């Protein structure tokens, strides 16, 4: 499944590059977004139910034409939750009373494509899709005693949003968007780190 | 101008990356930093025991060496253990009156930068508490479980309950440790908190009672 998605992404990027050779030269743009993330499904029920306001996303995108752009997106999000003291059964006869704190940092790096169906309108809606890797740093504390695991996993993303150019026909502007990030995480009985994300930011030409 | 903008953006992201991570340890109170671990021999019914005796001092186990001491905090822990053993229905008697249970309290310290596993703590238990103290010269101890997955970096208090009732008929000449409780975290070597720490161990061991 993952391999198929990655192959599809590579195919799309190859097609877009071919198209770009025939298109006029367009400026490379950088997007910088503040990101608010809401854990979903197993992430929410098993690890962190609080939303995280501590994150950002950045991407470098190449507009292949006025409707399609592709590039690389990177990001960072910090999730944290402290659960009230409770007694956990850690063996047939062993009990542990502890305040558990979960601290998770994710650093996704993905290949991404954006499609603007109305490139000439003042407010430009878009849809996006991407896939890549996700560096996960998971620290769990029982009281003040912690353990750390670092893993690299898969991440697929789908999103929608709008871009409002600074001036008509400009490739720079404000962004508002939302993405669903699918991130499996099969460790210690956990299932995934999937999340719903909301972004606000700007993009500007860098070359 | 564009290059400068891009560099500024990357610097901002770097600052956010470093600054926006929440440190869990900075969000814990002293009380929340503590953990309480209890374990017991699940084949034992604690209602079969009625009397206990408790040691008159605390074993301070530091980097594999031990000594006995009795300062105010140690006394507070001994008093708290007596209080909650009595509350569970056990009657305190002298160790010369054939108690069913013996209770040891240990103060475990590590001053090294390494990690002492709880398994190491059990490894020389007979060295910390000579079975002679409980009237069984030539005996050893048998601990059927250990907190092997946990480690002690700073300090801990442990309370162990020994099965003296069965020791005299134990063919292996072992005194079985049938219950153990461990308190770890900040500020535990303190007279004021001893009672609440011991209470936490007993509260999560509802099976520890005479009826």
Describe the structure in your own words.
- The complex is a heterodimer of chains A (207) and B (211).
- Chain A is mostly beta strands.
- In chain A, 14% of the residues lie in helices and 60% in strands.
- Chain A is built from two helices and eight strands.
- Chain A has helices spanning 2-22, 41-47; strands at residues 29-39, 55-63, 68-89, 95-115, 124-142, 145-165, 173-182, 195-205.
- An eight-stranded antiparallel β-barrel of chain A has the order 1-2-3-4-5-6-7-8.
- Chain B is α/β, with parallel strands linked by helices.
- Chain B is built from five helices and eleven strands; from the N terminus they run αββββαβββααββββα.
- Helices cover 26% and strands 27% of the residues of chain B.
- In chain B, a hairpin with a 2-residue loop joins β3 and β4 (65-69).
- At the A-B interface, β2, β3, β4 and β5 of A face α1 and β1 of B.
- β4 of chain A pairs antiparallel with β1 (35-40) of chain B.
Provide tags for this entry.
heterodimer, A: 207 residues, 8 strands, B: 211 residues, alpha/beta, nine-stranded mixed beta sheet, two-stranded antiparallel sheet, 5 helices, elongated
Summarize the structure.
Chain A is elongated and about 70 Å long. Chain A has two helices and eight strands, in the order H-E-H-E-E-E-E-E-E-E.
């Amino acid at each position: 499944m993952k391999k198929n998605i990655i192959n599809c992404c590579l195919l799309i990027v190859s097609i877009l590059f071919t198209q770009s050779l025939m298109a006029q030269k367009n400026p490379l743009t950088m997007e910088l977004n503040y990101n608010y993330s809401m854990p979903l499904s197993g992430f929410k029920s098993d690890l962190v139910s609080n939303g995280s306001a501590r994150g950002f996303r950045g991407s470098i995108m190449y507009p292949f034409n006025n409707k399609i752009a592709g590039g690389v997106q990177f990001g960072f999000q910090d999730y944290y939750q402290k659960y009230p003291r409770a007694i956990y059964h850690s063996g047939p006869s062993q009990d542990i009373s502890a305040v558990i704190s979960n601290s998770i940092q994710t650093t996704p790096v993905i290949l991404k494509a954006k499609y603007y169906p109305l490139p000439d309108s003042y407010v430009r809606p878009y849809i996006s899709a991407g896939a890549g890797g996700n560096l996960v740093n998971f620290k769990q504390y029982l009281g003040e005693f912690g353990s750390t695991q670092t893993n690299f996993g898969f991440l697929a993303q789908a999103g929608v949003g709008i871009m409002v150019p600074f001036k008509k026909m400009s490739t720079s502007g404000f962004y508002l968007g939302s993405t669903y990030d699918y991130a499996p995480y099969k460790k210690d009985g956990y299932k995934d780190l999937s999340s719903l994300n909301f972004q606000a930011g700007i993009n500007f030409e860098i070359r | 101008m564009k290059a400068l903008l891009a560099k500024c953006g990357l610097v901002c992201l770097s600052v956010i990356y470093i600054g926006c991570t929440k440190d869990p340890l900075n969000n814990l109170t002293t009380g929340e930093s503590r953990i309480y671990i209890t374990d017991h021999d699940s084949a034992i019914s604690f209602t079969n025991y009625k009397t206990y005796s408790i040691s008159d001092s605390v074993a301070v186990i530091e980097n594999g060496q031990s000594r006995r001491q009795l300062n105010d905090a140690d006394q507070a822990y001994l008093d708290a253990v007596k209080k909650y053993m009595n509350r569970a229905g056990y009657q305190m008697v002298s160790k010369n009156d054939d108690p069913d249970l013996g209770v040891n309290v240990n103060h475990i310290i590590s001053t090294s930068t390494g990690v002492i596993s709880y398994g190491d703590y059990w490894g020389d238990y007979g060295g910390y508490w000579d079975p002679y103290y409980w009237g069984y010269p030539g005996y050893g101890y048998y601990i059927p479980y250990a907190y092997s997955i946990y480690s002690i970096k700073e300090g801990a208090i442990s309370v162990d309950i020994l099965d003296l009732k069965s020791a005299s008929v134990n063919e292996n000449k072992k005194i079985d440790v049938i219950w153990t409780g461990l308190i770890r975290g900040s500020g535990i070597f303190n007279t004021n908190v001893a009672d609440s720490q011991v209470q936490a161990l007993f509260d999560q061991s509802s099976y520890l009672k005479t009826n």
